[in-house]
Amino acid sequence: MEASRRLYERALKVFPGGVNSPVRALVEPHPFYVERGEGAYLYTVDGRRLLDMVLGYGPLILGHRHPKVLEALREALDRGWLYGAPAEAEVRLAEKILSHVKPGGMVRFVNSGTEATMTAIRLARGYTGRRLVVKFDGCYHGSHDGVLVAAGSAAGELGIPASEGVPGEVARLTLVARYNDLESVYTLFQKYGDDIAAVIVEPVAANMGVVPPRRGFLEGLRKVTREYGALLIFDEVVTGFRLSLGGAQEYYGVDADIVTLGKVIGGGLPVGAVVAGRRVMERLAPSGKVFNAGTFNAHPLTMAAGLVTLEVLESEGLSRASESMKAVAEVLGEEAGRLGLEYTVNRVESMAQIFFGKGEVWNADDARASDHRLYKALHREMLREGVFIAPSQMESLFTSTAHGPAEAELFAEAYRRALRRAIRG
Ligand SMILES: Cc1ncc(COP(=O)(O)O)c(C=O)c1O
To answer: Which of 58, 72, 178, 349 could make an S-S bridge to 308, C-beta 3.0–4.6 Å?
Structure first.
């Protein structure tokens, strides 16, 4: 780890906290620096090979450096990489997305999940002429002001800023409800229903570990938003093209008014997208008066990588990624049980996380109550064993189509040793 440590010391002088996105600083004992990625593995500047269960925090559904993505990127590079004018690939990618996600709808490409949710919320406000947005405690929708809002003393209240620099006036436009708790949503609608523009939700929460929706939760959100004339936004930045090609809408059979996508649809390059029916989408500039623009929107390299990624998923499916995670999730629980720990493993297809402690995990309070210290120790010991799991309890583990039985076995062996050491502290 000597080469990584030296780079980190230099990084601490030029980046706040030494990194460019906070979660990267949580890697213990310090961030490792990557030389290259291949398939299910990362190779570090220290000469180590790591089994990657993070996958860029979700985008790399085909694993690192998939040959077809590489070929498409090389081919796109050859034709230049920024035009400031449209190109065919953006039309093809939008058509492909719409064939799975919202037939008859429209797309706006942006450059990150953050931009996608920011635009979706602006669009919902423009469309409804209302001000307030309901989000859920523990759901993450990127780093813009309106969603950097936490629940107050109890969920079901006007939000308070979750970051310095977010004015209270802005945070108060976001109402915070409890995940998987429809009562907390009804309370907000009874009080503020006439002024609620949208409910934004991660249909499977991937930012409090992994927390699936309880039966009826998403359906309940659909019903109440319809009743009050608010829009339902599914933030599918993580779940889109991961749960199924149609995302959570297809997986759970619930239709949202607006879907935000990111991560997988860019094949590992920066991307975000807003998807909705024509009536809503035509409110966006230039056909409507809700503004969004971007120098890099529908970037040619991203479009090329995204298109080929979705084509590979169409021909090969998602089952290999899901099967690998099934095996990983089983071993997570089995070994914890064998060592006498209380635990919950939540898995949905190729996303999973373990929580140490009593009781099931259905919301952010449950996730916060789990034993983060033990998880942290597990992360550190897994890294020593050559497996990179998310450094925070509040993130998901991911598998890709490059993860097969050999990777599941490698994970299992590492985990058996790492968990024993983690318990000892
Ligand atoms: C559900 C969800 N929405 C939005 C975002 C923000 O995406 P980005 O990091 O691309 O801005 C994330 C990021 O992890 C996310 O998990």
So the answer is: 72
Same structural domain for residues 258 and 308?
A: yes
Q: Which residues are catalytic?
A: 140, 235, 263
Distance between CA atoms of residues 62 and 324, nearest Å: 13
Residue 306 is given by DSSP the state H
What tens digit of pLDDT does each residue of 286-343 get? 999 999 999 999 999 999 999 999 999 999 999 999 999 999 999 999 999 999 999 9
Q: Do 25 and 142 fall into the same domain?
A: no
Q: How far is the CA of 142 from the centre of ligand 1 (A)?
A: 5
Collapsing DSSP states into helix, strand and coil, what is residue 64? strand
Of 316, 338, 360, the residue at which a domain comes to its end is 316
pTM: 0.98
- The residues that bridge with 340 in the sheet, in sequence order, are none
Same domain (yes/no): 273, 368: no
Cα→Cα distances 368→148, 197, 248, 388, 419, Å: 18, 29, 25, 22, 20
C-alpha 338 to ligand 1 mean position (Å): 35
Domain boundary pick from 287, 316, 345: 316
